TrEMBL record:
Subcellular location, record wording: Membrane
Keywords noted in UniProt: Membrane, Transmembrane, Transmembrane helix
A GO MF term: L-amino acid transmembrane transporter activity
Topology term for the membrane: Multi-pass membrane protein
Residue ranges crossing the lipid bilayer per the database entry: 7-26, 38-65, 86-112, 132-151, 163-183, 210-233, 254-277, 297-322, 355-372, 378-398, 410-431, 437-455
Stated name of the protein: Amino acid permease
Pfam families: AA_permease_2
Any one of the GO CC terms: membrane
Signal sequence residues: none
Nucleotide-binding keyword on record: no
Provenance organism: Sphingobacterium spiritivorum ATCC 33861
C-alpha cells in the first residue's frame, strides 16, 4: 500500500471517527442517571482520561507494528491468532458495522428533523412487523455512497474526511463560543448547587437521592454513553499501512486527536449546563440535548443550525469508519480468517471488495433495526478489548524487554495501570449493576470461538 495519508489526514480520521452523534445526545442520559452537574462533568473527565491514556498506550504498539490491521494486528502479534480473530469477529458483526449503521440512521433522523414529512411518510415497504422507512433508506444511501467514494482511492476518502471533520470541528467551536457570549439565562451555578450529592430520575417520575454503591452503579451506566461517544479513535491504526512515517505519525495522530476531541466534549457539556436546567438536560426531546441548548441560545433558527451540524458530524463520522474498517477485514482475509475475496486491492490501491462487504452488512443492520440494542451492549466489549490491548503493552515489556521500541508509552507504567484500573472498575460495576449491558456482549464474543475453530478446520481440510 502507498503511504498517501499525512499527519493531518490521520488526525482528521481520529477526530472524524470519534465525533458522531453521541456528544449531541448522551448527556441527557448521564443527567438522568446522576442528576448533578458535578457528576456530569466527572463522568466526562473520567472518560477523557481513559481515552487519552489508551491512545498513549496504543502508540507503543503502533510504532512496533506499523502496518494495516491496527488493533487486530496488535492482539494477534501479542496474544495469538484466536484473540485477534475474536476482536475482528466482534468488529465485523457489530462494533464497526453497527456503529456505521447507528450513525447513518442518526443522519437520517436529523434529516427528518429538517424535513418533518419524512417522519410521517408511509413505509417504503411493510410486511407484517417488518417495515422499511425512509429514514432507513437515507441511512443505507449514505453508507453505500461513502463506500463507493472510498473505493475510488484513499485520496477520495481523505478529502471527504478532511472537509467534513474540519466543518464539524469549526461548528462545535462556534457553538461553544456562541454559547459563552449569547446565553440569556445561565443555569451553570444552579446545576452545580447540589455538589457531589447524586440524584436519579430514569423515567421522569421525580428525582430521588442516591448514595454509596448506587452512585457507582449510576456512574458506570452513565459512562456507557460517554465511552461510546469517545471510541473509534483507534480506527486510524487500521490504515497505518497507508500513513506516511507510521511509526511516528500514528501515535501523534491518536494522542493529538483524542485530546482535542475530549476538550471539545468537555466545553460542549459546559454549554449544556449553562444553557439548560437539570430537567431540560435530562428530558430533552428524544435526548437531543444539543438541539435544546441551541434553541435556548439562538431560538428556532438554532435548532436548524444544530440539526445541520449533526448531519455534517454524522456524515464525516461514517466516512472515517468506512474508510478504516475495511482494512482490518482485508488483513484478516490475508491471515485466512475472513472471506478470501476481501484480500485484493482494486486499481486505485484500496480493498474494494472488503469495503463493499462491510457496507452491505452495515446496510442489513440498518434494515434489522436491532443495531441500536446491540450498540448499547458493546461499550462493555469495546472496553474489554481496549484493556486487553493496553495490557499487551505491559505483557510485551515483560516478555520481550529488549525489543526495539521507536516510541515508549509516556509515564509508563502509570499510564497503562491507570487505564486498567478505571476500565476494570467500569466493567465490574456494569456486571453488578447493569448486567443487560454485559452478557449479550460476552455471548457475541463467545460465538466467535466455534467460528474460529470451524474456519481453522476448513483450512486444514483444504491443505490436506
Amino acid at each position: 500500500m502507498k503511504n498517501q495519508l499525512k499527519l493531518w489526514d490521520a488526525v482528521m480520521i481520529v477526530m472524524g471517527s470519534m465525533i458522531g452523534s453521541g456528544i449531541f445526545i448522551v448527556s441527557s442520559d448521564i443527567m438522568r442517571q446522576l442528576g448533578s452537574g458535578w457528576w456530569m462533568i466527572i463522568v466526562w473527565l473520567i472518560t477523557a482520561v481513559m481515552t487519552v491514556a489508551a491512545a498513549i498506550c496504543y502508540g507503543e504498539l503502533s510504532a512496533l507494528f506499523p502496518k494495516a490491521g491496527g488493533q487486530y494486528t496488535y492482539l494477534t502479534e501479542v496474544f495469538g491468532k484466536m484473540t485477534g480473530f475474536l476482536y475482528g469477529w466482534s468488529l465485523f458483526t457489530v462494533i464497526q458495522t453497527g456503529t456505521i449503521a447507528a450513525v447513518a440512521v442518526a443522519f437520517g433522523k436529523f434529516t427528518a428533523y429538517l424535513i418533518p414529512e419524512l417522519n410521517n411518510a408511509a413505509p417504503v415497504l411493510q410486511y407484517g412487523e417488518i417495515k422499511i422507512t425512509w429514514i432507513q433508506i437515507i441511512a443505507i444511501s449514505i453508507i453505500l455512497l461513502l463506500t463507493f467514494i472510498n473505493t475510488k482511492g484513499v485520496q477520495s476518502g481523505k478529502i471527504v474526511q478532511s472537509i467534513f471533520t474540519s466543518s464539524k470541528i469549526l461548528a462545535l467551536v462556534v457553538l461553544i463560543v456562541g454559547g459563552i457570549f449569547m446565553i440569556r439565562q445561565n443555569f451553570f451555578a444552579e446545576n452545580l448547587a447540589s455538589g457531589l450529592q447524586a440524584f436519579q430520575n430514569l423515567k421522569g417520575e421525580g428525582w430521588r437521592e442516591i448514595s454509596g454503591s448506587l452512585v457507582m452503579g449510576g456512574v458506570a451506566a452513565a459512562m456507557v454513553g460517554a465511552v461510546f461517544s469517545s471510541v473509534a479513535w483507534e480506527n486510524v491504526t487500521f490504515v497505518a499501512g497507508e500513513i506516511d512515517n507510521p511509526r511516528r505519525n500514528v501515535v501523534r495522530a491518536m494522542v493529538l486527536g483524542t485530546a482535542l476531541v475530549m476538550v471539545l466534549y468537555l466545553f460542549c457539556n459546559f454549554i449544556y449546563l449553562a444553557a439548560l436546567g437539570r430537567d431540560e438536560i435530562a428530558f430533552a426531546e428524544n435526548d437531543r440535548v444539543a438541539v435544546a441548548a441551541a434553541e435556548k441560545i439562538l431560538g428556532h433558527s438554532g435548532t436548524i443550525i444544530m440539526a445541520i451540524l449533526v448531519m455534517i458530524s454524522t456524515f464525516g463520522c461514517v466516512n472515517g469508519i468506512v474508510l478504516s474498517g475495511a482494512r482490518v477485514f482485508q488483513t484478516m482475509a490475508r491471515d485466512g480468517l475472513f472471506l478470501r475475496l476481501a484480500i485484493s486491492n482494486n486499481k486505485h490501491g484500496v480493498p474494494e471488495k472488503s469495503l463493499w462487504i462491510q457496507g452491505i452488512w452495515a446496510s442489513l443492520l440498518c434494515l434489522s433495526g436491532q443495531y441500536g440494542d446491540l450498540l448499547d451492549m458493546i461499550s462493555f466489549v469495546i472496553v474489554l478489548f481496549y484493556m486487553l490491548t493496553v495490557f499487551g503493552v505491559m505483557w510485551l515489556r515483560w516478555k520481550k524487554p529488549n525489543l526495539e521500541r521507536p516510541y515508549r508509552t509516556f509515564l509508563y507504567p502509570l499510564t497503562p495501570v491507570l487505564y486498567l484500573l478505571i476500565g476494570t472498575a467500569f466493567c465490574i460495576l456494569l456486571i453488578v449493576f447493569k448486567p443487560q449491558y454485559t452478557w449479550p456482549g460476552f455471548i457475541l464474543v463467545l460465538i466467535g470461538v466455534p467460528v474460529y475453530y470451524f474456519i481453522n478446520r476448513r483450512k486444514k481440510v483444504d491443505v490436506g
